[in-house]
Amino acid sequence: MSILIVTGIEGARNCAAVVAAQLGMEVEVADGRKAALAALRRREFAAVVVDETMAECDPASAEAIWDHASLAIPLQLNFALSGAARLICEIRAALHRREREQTLARRAAAAAIEIELKSTVAGLLLHSQLALNGNEVPALVAERMRVVADLAGSLRQQLNSPMMTRIDNAA
Fold first, then answer.
1. Domain enclosing residue 165, as ranges
2. Average pLDDT, the chain
3. Is residue 30 part of a domain?
4. Can you spell out the DSSP letters for 76-97?
């Protein structure tokens, strides 16, 4: 991934080179709204840094850039007051925040799916056992229901085991 810096300030390309070297990422500089929008149409960026002065002077341009930034982390920084070190620090912090947020989102999604699966398996197990308790079940159907009940029981045990055990067994 790369970073887009949107500023008309002199020396922006030198600053971008320092940022690229420090972060080990490609950095592209756009000197205004049109160039920024063209860059955003060409590819995805990890972060889009807009000069605060430009954003304050032309809020509609800044809003258009944010609207087209997709999943890029939006950052606004005053390039006249901040040097490359501050820019690097802000970008690095934003990237780490995004990484933590994505990890937490993945964990929450996995937990939600696990709860859904446990509920479905419990229902499947209950209904197959209830069907097996009936007296009018033909032998062939009863045998198939036992297989379904056994499979559901096995899946339930796997879902109830700790996550790391399941990952180790899958590998």
1. 109-170
2. 88
3. yes
4. EE-TTT--HHHHHHHHHHHHHH
